[in-house]
């Protein structure tokens, strides 16, 4: 019997060894598969178990965290939610994250390995770093001025600092409050459904995620290309252009809203915004040089991140002469985000240099130590310095004696360009009012701010919609807010 | 220590003065260690959750300590030569189980199970003491062979009259208490099997025809085996309790093999078991569903219904990794229903890691080993079979439930001995430990003074 007892003991030992081997298989060998299974809620629970780091504007947090005591413990809160929604985006337990909340999520949630005091520290201690903070480049005064200026309308504002590329304002109206989306309950679901059903699309960030035909504001690009190419010798020489202009290869006549465009000088044509002159200039400059100029300003760049992606602004390069003529006055397939047009104004303001725009100044640990800081981004030359200085003159002319008079600021040098872009089938839609500009304090060496405003207002009469009338006052308010600040 | 055990089991009777030294001091030291570890775990939960030692820590430690010391005194008085390991192992497993249940209670404030479990543990230790004090010689149990089997069958059949709970008819509810009579039936059946086989060994060993390399049993002795098999399948079908059925049948096959030494029994047992399993797996939807879940634990996730309990259990084990998340810091409560009972091991796996889980399984292994060692040391066939049966019962039950929650075999609703919430189980396991202590004491006395007990 003893021998058989030993056999039975061996059998029991085998059972227990099988358990140990299987436990090692589940807990070590296949652990990663199980941990990363999307149905495993642990990652989510850990993610919301601590307060999320904050997004700061001018040193003050515009976000917060609320302890709900629920299973997913902390929920996001927002101060001035609709004002900063185009910057922060939302952080929802149900619907994920967008904009800065998405691109800076690793820092904000504490998951970024760089937040650890020592490499592999969190893996070893099974802890999670406290959420880090994200300091933005936004100027709260400019942001508020833009938001107030667009109140009751539909549109967007982008403002940048020409010498650095820092984004000073990013506003989209109508906006929304991201806070009700933070949780995972009924409020979040109802808000989500309501926002998605809204025909005005409040969650669309018009400043960077939507492109508009830039209309006459694109004439800055066409003028820069023509001057750089030597197609125009001087801004005060007649351009030998007809009015109306017969689009090459067609029988379509291009006419002007403005008067005295026939054979106008570049200066006069720019100030009066003559379509005929710039259409012809574009055609004379040629598609390859026009393309090079547009792309050096940032058009056709699908990879721009600020750090969230920006919709690519487009300048169509497979065009015939007539299409090129229309493209050169910001119509046909030419489309731009407000941020792109702010970059165009900034290039003029900073002597022809285009600096990549950015929104995050610094990310820090919860304790304040810097994790990463914005370095000087890529710099591109969009035009010769001489061309930039001539264009500055032309843009000043628009504000001082042209269509952009409402942008003038006492004690400051302001340059601008209006635009009223047709769109829709047969240009039936309400036109978009554009204004792009830069401003420099008289006591300073270089412009402090470049701004682009687009108003896509469906209300009001067709006549009232114009770059100079509707968009320029908004731009002025933003520029003033930046310039006033010491 | 173990070497001494072997010597005792096999050597000729030596001088009693040397051999009869008890090892009660070792036992007491181990009990202090077991209680200390449990209190440490209890404090660790509180520190991890609230940053403070939980207020009940002293009371918990004192309660567990008093119970363990009382049990120890009973052993010291009535079974002084007993193996010093089973009692501390029981105390440690029961203590860890209480810590895990207390820890899970924090996640379900409306449903506290630890206080009731503490009461059941007290009852269990009381039963342990009673067995040690009353049962002076294990062979007395042989007189109650048929009382045992009758009681076991009654206990097994009673739940059929009660409504099914979560698909299985294994509970009876009396005055607010849920009792699983099948748990008590385990011990009674082990006693019956041991006594029956000890009495009928000769007849059963008589071999029938030889086929290939196996001796087939004769038709005359096939009857009891088929009867037990039928009862097991009956339990399975009527109560939908795969685990208990597997356990009984496994226990019977092991004891039959040990008693007769016939490999034919094992072959026949395996054949019948697989036949039964295949048939029931096909026909019985509840069991069929368990098998499907075992084969495809993530099917419900792919179907968009979210993770099922087995998937959640696997997630918990995986999260534990090697060292675990630490007591009180895991999320095994996601398993939901039965997290404190059938799935208690997942909490241990997540919060104590593979290291802690291995320690727990090794504790069970040690308990089983001590049982087998007593079986080897005993001289009387009944005692040997009873020790082997009780030890195998522990091993089989641990395998069936731990294998189920880790995805090794299909899940069967069963309580992890000592760890899981469930009064019947705790009380039964204390009875098993008491019998093992008694058997080990008898083994040493038989070795020391052959004939003295006969």
Write out key terms for the chains shown.
heterodimer; A: 486 residues; alpha+beta; Beta-lactamase; 5-stranded mixed β-sheet; 5-stranded antiparallel β-sheet; 18 helices; 18 strands; B: 454 residues; mainly alpha; two-stranded antiparallel sheet; 4 strands; globular
Task: Describe it.
Chain A: GO terms for molecular function: glycosyltransferase activity. Chain A: Residues 52-134 form the Penicillin binding protein A dimerisation domain. Chain A: This is Peptidoglycan glycosyltransferase. The complex is a heterodimer of chains A (486) and B (454). Chain A has a domain at 209-363 and 374-484: Beta-lactamase, CATH 3.40.710.10. Chain A has 18 helices and 18 strands. Chain A has helices at 2-29, 31-35, 42-47, 81-88, 99-103, 105-109, 121-125, 140-149, 186-197, 206-209, 219-229, 266-272, 275-285, 287-297, 321-327, 338-349, 385-401, 467-484; strands at residues 55-57, 60-61, 63-67, 74-78, 91-92, 96-97, 133-136, 155-160, 167-173, 245-246, 253-254, 353-355, 360-364, 370-373, 379-381, 412-421, 432-441, 449-455. A 5-stranded mixed β-sheet of chain A has the order 2-1-7-13-14, with no helix packed on it. Chain A has a 5-stranded antiparallel β-sheet with strand order 9-8-18-17-16, with helices on both faces. The longest helix of chain A is centred in the first third of the chain and has 28 residues, at 2-29. The mean pLDDT of chain A is 91. With 454 residues, chain B is mostly helical. Chain B has helices spanning 2-10, 16-19, 24-50, 57-78, 86-105, 114-134, 145-157, 181-205, 219-239, 242-260, 263-283, 285-295, 299-302, 309-320, 344-377, 381-405, 423-448; strands spanning 172-174, 177-179, 207-211, 214-217. A two-stranded antiparallel sheet of chain B has the order 1-2. In chain B, strands 3-4 form a two-stranded antiparallel ribbon. The radius of gyration of chain B is 22 Å and the shape is globular. The A-B interface holds A 1-9, 11-13, 15-16, 18-20, 22-24, 26-28, 30-35, 37-42, 45, 126 and B 254, 257-259, 261, 298, 301, 306-307, 311, 314-315, 317-322, 325-326, 329, 331, 334, 349, 353-354, 357-358, 361-362, 364-365, 368-369, 372, 375-376, 381, 384, 388, 391-392, 395-396, 398-399, 402-403, 406-408.
């Amino acid at each position: 019997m003893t021998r058989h007892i030993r056999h039975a003991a061996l059998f029991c030992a085998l059972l227990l060894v099988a358990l140990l081997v299987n436990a090692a298989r589940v807990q070590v060998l296949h652990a990663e598969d199980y941990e990363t299974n999307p149905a495993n809620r642990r990652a989510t629970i850990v993610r919301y178990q601590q307060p999320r780091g904050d997004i700061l504007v001018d040193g003050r947090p515009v976000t917060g965290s609320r302890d709900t005591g629920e299973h997913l413990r902390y929920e996001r809160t927002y101060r001035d939610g609709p004002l900063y929604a185009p910057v922060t985006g939302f952080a929802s337990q149900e619907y994920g994250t967008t904009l800065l909340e998405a691109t800076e999520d690793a820092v904000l949630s504490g998951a970024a390995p760089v937040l650890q005091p020592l490499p592999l520290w969190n893996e070893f201690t099974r802890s999670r770093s406290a959420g880090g903070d994200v300091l933005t480049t936004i100027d709260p005064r400019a942001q508020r001025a833009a938001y107030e200026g667009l109140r009751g309308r539909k549109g967007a504002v982008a403002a940048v600092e020409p010498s650095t590329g820092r984004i000073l304002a990013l506003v989209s109206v109508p906006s929304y409050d991201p806070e009700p989306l933070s949780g995972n309950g009924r409020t979040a679901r109802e808000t989500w459904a309501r926002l998605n059903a809204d025909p005005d699309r409040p969650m669309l960030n018009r400043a960077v995620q939507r492109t508009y035909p830039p209309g006459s504001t694109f004439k800055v690009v066409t003028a820069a290309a023509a001057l750089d190419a030597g197609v125009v010798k001087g801004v005060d020489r007649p351009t030998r252009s007809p009015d109306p202009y017969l689009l090459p290869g067609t029988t379509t006549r291009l006419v002007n809203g403005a008067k005295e465009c026939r054979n106008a000088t570049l200066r006069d044509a720019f100030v009066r915004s003559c379509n005929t002159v710039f259409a012809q200039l574009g055609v004379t400059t040629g598609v390859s040089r026009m393309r090079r100029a547009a792309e050096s300003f940032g058009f056709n760049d699908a990879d721009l991140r600020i750090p969230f992606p920006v919709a690519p602004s487009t300048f169509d390069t497979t065009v015939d002469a007539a299409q090129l003529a229309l493209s050169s006055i910001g119509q046909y397939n030419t489309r731009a985000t407000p941020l792109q047009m702010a970059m165009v104004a900034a290039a003029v303001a900073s002597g022809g240099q285009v600096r990549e725009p950015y929104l995050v100044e610094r990310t820090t640990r919860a304790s304040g130590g810097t994790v990463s800081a914005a370095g000087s981004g890529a710099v591109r030359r969009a035009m010769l310095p001489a061309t930039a200085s001539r264009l500055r003159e032309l843009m000043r002319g628009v504000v001082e004696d042209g269509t952009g008079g409402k942008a003038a600021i006492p004690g400051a040098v302001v340059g601008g360009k209006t635009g009223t872009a047709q769109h829709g089938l047969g240009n039936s839609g309400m036109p978009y009012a554009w204004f792009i500009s830069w401003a420099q304090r008289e006591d300073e060496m270089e412009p402090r701010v470049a701004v682009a405003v687009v108003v896509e207002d469906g209300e009001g009469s067709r006549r009232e919609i114009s770059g100079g009338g509707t968009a320029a006052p908004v731009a002025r308010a933003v520029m003033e807010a930046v310039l006033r600040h010491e | 220590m173990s070497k001494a055990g072997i010597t005792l089991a096999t050597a000729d009777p030596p001088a009693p003065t040397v051999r009869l030294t008890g090892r009660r001091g070792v036992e007491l030291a181990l009990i202090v260690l077991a209680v200390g570890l449990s209190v440490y775990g209890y404090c660790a939960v509180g520190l991890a959750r609230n940053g403070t030692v939980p207020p009940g820590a002293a009371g918990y430690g004192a309660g567990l300590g008093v119970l363990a010391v009382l049990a120890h005194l009973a052993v010291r008085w009535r079974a002084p030569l007993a193996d010093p390991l089973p009692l501390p192992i029981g105390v440690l497993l029961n203590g860890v189980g209480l810590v895990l249940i207390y820890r899970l209670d924090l996640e379900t404030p409306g449903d506290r199970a630890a206080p009731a479990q503490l009461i059941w543990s007290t009852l269990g230790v009381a039963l342990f003491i009673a067995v040690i004090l009353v049962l002076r010689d294990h062979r007395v149990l042989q007189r109650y062979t048929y009382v045992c089997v009758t009681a076991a069958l009654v206990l097994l059949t009673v739940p059929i009259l009660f409504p099914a709970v979560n698909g299985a008819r294994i509970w009876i509810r009396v005055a607010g208490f849920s009792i699983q009579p099948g748990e008590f039936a385990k011990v009674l059946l082990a006693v019956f099997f041991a006594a029956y086989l000890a009495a009928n060994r000769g007849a059963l060993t008589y071999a029938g025809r030889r086929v290939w390399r196996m001796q087939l049993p004769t038709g005359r002795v096939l009857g009891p085996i088929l009867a037990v098999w039928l009862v097991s399948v009956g339990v399975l079908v009527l109560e939908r309790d795969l685990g208990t059925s597997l356990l009984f049948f496994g226990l019977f096959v092991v004891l039959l093999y040990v008693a007769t030494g016939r490999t034919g029994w094992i072959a026949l047992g395996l054949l019948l078991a697989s036949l039964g399993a295949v048939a029931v797996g096909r026909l019985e939807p509840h069991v069929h569903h368990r098998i499907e879940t075992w084969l495809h634990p993530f099917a419900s996730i792919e179907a968009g219904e979210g993770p099922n309990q087995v998937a959640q259990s696997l997630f918990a084990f995986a999260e534990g990794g090697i060292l675990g998340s630490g007591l009180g810091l895991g999320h095994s409560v996601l398993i939901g229903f039965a997290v404190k009972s059938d799935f208690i091991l997942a909490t241990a796996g997540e919060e104590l890691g593979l290291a802690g889980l291995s320690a727990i399984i090794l504790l069970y292994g040690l308990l089983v080993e001590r049982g087998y060692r007593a079986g080897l040391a005993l001289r009387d066939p009944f005692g040997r079979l009873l020790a082997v049966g009780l030890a195998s019962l522990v091993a089989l039950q641990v395998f069936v439930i731990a294998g189920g929650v880790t995805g090794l075999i299909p899940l069967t609703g069963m309580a992890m001995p000592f760890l899981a919430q469930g009064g019947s189980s705790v009380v039964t396991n204390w009875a098993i430990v008491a019998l093992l202590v008694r058997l080990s004491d008898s083994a040493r006395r038989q070795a020391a003074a052959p004939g003295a007990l006969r």
